[in-house]
Structures are given as structure tokens and as C-alpha cells.
Amino acid sequence: MHLLIILYIGLLIAPFSSESRATQEKDTNADAVASKPLPHNAEQSRVDQIIIESFGLTHDGWSSDEVILNDRLNRRFIAACKQELPEFTIFDLNWRLMNLRKAGKLTPKTTKSNRIPVGAVTHIAEIAARSLQDKLSISTDKIMADPKHREAFNQIAQSVDPTSDLYQVRKAAFQLRKARKLRPELITRIADWGRVIESYSITEIKQQPKLIPEHPGIYIFRDPTGYLYIGQTDDLRSRLKTHLDQSHNQSFATYLGENNLDRITVEIHSFAPDSRAKESRVRRAYESELISSRKPKFNIQP
Questions:
Q1: Is the pLDDT of residue 33 over 90?
Q2: Which of 77, 105, 118, 243 has a CA between 20 and 30 Å from the CA of residue 220?
Q3: Rounded to an integer, what is the distance from CA 176 to the centroid of its chain?
Q4: What average pLDDT does range 272-284 have in this prediction?
Q5: CB 63 within 8 A of CB 110
Q6: Are strands 217-223 and 226-233 parallel, antiparallel or unpaired?
Q7: Which option is the CATH number for 186-294: 3.40.1440.10, 3.20.20.140, 3.40.120.10, 3.40.50.2300?
Q8: pTM attached to this predicted model
């Protein structure tokens, strides 16, 4: 069934493939501008050697992933690098460390492991990582390597559950990434159609309904337990009002009536009214992929 969905989406958005390539090239170029490009040849070898030596001096036996995820270890690593490479950003240095590890060039040995249980926060990690991936079209590795994106990740995680241990949530995100469970949905990789992503608590929506545009789109309910319900509509404001007055899904309506609405958030994916998203079949394809990947508890699986 999932294969049929992917083939169906491919047919729907095939005319936009050239536009997608242009968008991806634009994103790649923007990322290159935002971060100082690393040097080449002999100079790059010197930079790589400094990063490897700095890692060796500061990792204290931990892996490169741990040096990225652990705030204390990362500060030590960056400080050591900056003594010789002050012109490079934190992202430059973290990103190069990750790539050196992937290339098998990190010679300092890992002697310690911190296999803490993260099952209790895995859903929080998925929500935070997917929210940023949807909005920024970047990988989990880039989220963790860049201080600005990492802080945004932390803020989303805390909005889901303020009591969560952010280090554990970051560890869980890396585990999801390694298990290849955070791949972006096909349709979001290929077509944008003026997509805007925002999140609001149900209380905010009830108090200010005009926060929600009268546009076609997708809505994703979530709370500290994970994803709750995903739907599509040609008018987000009207559909959400209907859900909050009395959802047609009886189980979901009961859940809304029995829980603190301040802890339930709606993530809105709104599209330009003149985009392909005005077509019901396109929105349903997008909705179907989201339901398949995120498995909200009150949806019937496609």
C-alpha cells in the first residue's frame, strides 16, 4: 500500500521535478553562504589535522557523536579548535568533525559509551526533529551541528514536554536518524507550493481563531504523548473550528474533552490558495504519507 502511495505522489508532482531541483540547488547555495567554506588540498589537510587533534585532546574517550550531543564536551572541543581556527564557526567545526568520522579519519579511539535508555522521549525527539526538517529542509546532523538550529530543536522539545531531559532527547534523535526513521516525506522533498508551517496551542486557536489562515493545508495534533491526529482540508480555519467544537472522530473528541488543551498543539501546514494543494487528491496524498510515517493514534492507518 505504501509503495502505491509513493507512486501516486510521484505522478502528482512529476511536473514540479525541475522546480524541485532548482529549489534544492538554491538551498545548497544558501547553506554554503551561511557557513564559511572549508579550504581545499593542503590547507584543508591542515584544518582537518587541527580538528582531529582537538578532538583527541578533549573527547575524554567519548565518541564524536557524544562530543556533538553533550554540551560540556562540545564546548571543550570548540574551544580547542578555535585556538588555531578562530575564523571558523561552531557549525563549520562540528560539521567537519562529523564528516571526518564518516570518512573514517578520526584516529583517537573511543573507549567510553553512554547507552542511556531514551524510549520515554523518542516521540519528543521525533516531533522536534520532524518539525525542523519540515520547516527548514535540513538533516538531523545539521540541526545538531548548528547552535541556532539546535536551540530551536531544544525549544520545540520543551514545548512538547517542559520536563524532558534535552540531552536524552538529542540522543533519541540521533538514534532515530541512525535507524533511518526520520526521512522526510516524498512530497515535502519535491514540492513546496508556498507552504508555511506554524504551531499553536488549542487555547491560542480558541482565543484567536484568525491565527489560522483560510487556506488549504494539513493539520497535525500532538501532545506530550506524541502525534494524535492528522487531517487535510481546503479551509484550515473552518476545519479546525469544527474539530474543536466537536470532532467527527469520536475517540479524538473524547480525548480533547478529557485533557488539558494547553498541552495539545496543532502544527499547521498551510499552502498558497492558488497552488496544487487546492486539489483534494494532492492534499490526501500528503496526508496519507504523514499518517504512514508519524502514526497518529487516532487516525485509521491508510
A1: no
A2: 118
A3: 11
A4: 92
A5: yes
A6: antiparallel
A7: 3.40.1440.10
A8: 0.81
